[in-house]
C-alpha cells in the first residue's frame, strides 16, 4: 500500500474544502488579506494556484492546532463560553473576518468579548509577526463595529506541535486609528481587484511560501557576471547550508527523543558518552507590544540602537 500519492491528493481536497468554508474569497477582503502583500492577495483572487504538497501540509497544521485547542477548551468545561469560526462583516464594504475563537466571558464568568487567534508555528517567535497583529486588530475593529460597547480584547495563541510548546501574546485592544488604516488597505485591495489601482508588494517571512514569488518585483535581482570561483563558492555555501538545515532538523527530532528518556533533569555516563539534561528556570521578560501600547512614552525612552550586521543570502535561482 503506497500512501504518499493518496495523501497528496487527499490534502489537496482537504485544502479546497477548508477554503470553501470561508466562502468565495474573490468577493471580499479578509482579515488575513489586510496584513498581507497586496500583489499576492490580488493574484490569489484573480489567478488562484494550488500550493504544493509540502505547503498544504504546513497549512494543515493550523487546522490541527485549532481542533486541539477546541478539544482542550471542551475538556476543561468552558465550551459554553465561546464560539468558533465566527464571521464578522463590515456594514458598508465587502470586508470580513473569520474569528478562530470568540469568548463571550472570562473563565470566571465575567462578560467580555475576547478574540483568540491561533497560529501553528515551527518555533515560537519572540514577538508576534506584524501580519498577525494586523489580522487581529482588523478582527477587533470589525467586532467593535458590531458591538460598540463593552470590554473587548484579543490575543494570539501560538502553538509548536513538534516542540510541545505554547505561548500567548496577550493584551491587544481595539485601536481605532489602526483599524481605519487597515480598512483603507482593504479598500485599496478591492480597487486593485476592480483594476482601479496597481497592487503593491510588501515582503515578510511569508514570502517563502508564496506561489507568485518567481516573478515578483520585490524578489527580482539584477543580472551580473560573477567570477567563476565566486560562483563556485556561493554554490558550495548553498550546499553546506542545506546540509546544516537537514542536520538541524534531525537534531531537533533526536533531541526530543533523548529528553523523553532523560526528563528535565538527568546525569549519566556510558562507555561512549556523557548524557546530561538540566532545566533552566523561568525568568521575567518585558512584553514589548504591551509596553508600547500602555506606556508609549516610556517605551520610546528606553529604546536603544541595535548593532547592524552584514547579511549574506545564497539561493539557487532555478
CATH topology title of the largest domain: Lambda Exonuclease, Chain A
Strand runs, count: 8
For the biggest sheet, the summary is:
6 strands, mixed
At CATH level 2, the architecture of the largest domain is Alpha-Beta Complex
Radius of gyration: 23 Å
H/E element order: HEHHHEEEHEEHHEEHH
CATH class of the largest domain: Alpha Beta
Alpha-beta classification: alpha/beta
The span between the termini is: 34 Å
- Taking pLDDT < 50 over at least 5 consecutive residues as the criterion, the unreliable ranges are none
Number of individual domains:
2
> What fraction strand?
15-25%
Helicity range: 40-55%
What does the secondary structure layout of this molecule look like, with pairings?
Layout: H1 3-21, E1 29-30, H2 31-34, H3 38-46, H4 53-75, E2 82-89, E3 95-105, E4 111-120, H5 130-146, E5 152-160, E6 165-173, H6 176-193, H7 228-262, E7 266-269, E8 274-277, H8 288-294, H9 296-301
Parallel strand pairs: 1-3, 4-5
Antiparallel strand pairs: 2-3, 3-4, 5-6, 7-8
Helix pairs in contact: 1-4, 3-6, 5-6
Structure report:
It is a single chain. With 318 residues, this protein is α/β, with parallel strands linked by helices. The chain has two domains: 24-219, Lambda Exonuclease, Chain A, CATH 3.90.320; 223-258. Helix content is 43%, strand content 18%. It has nine helices and eight strands. It has helices at 3-21, 31-34, 38-46, 53-75, 130-146, 176-193, 228-262, 288-294, 296-301, and strands at 29-30, 82-89, 95-105, 111-120, 152-160, 165-173, 266-269, 274-277. Strands 1, 2, 3, 4, 5 and 6 form a six-stranded mixed beta sheet that branches. Strands 7-8 form a two-stranded antiparallel sheet. Strand 5 (152-160) and strand 6 form a beta hairpin. The protein is globular and about 65 Å long. The mean pLDDT is 88.
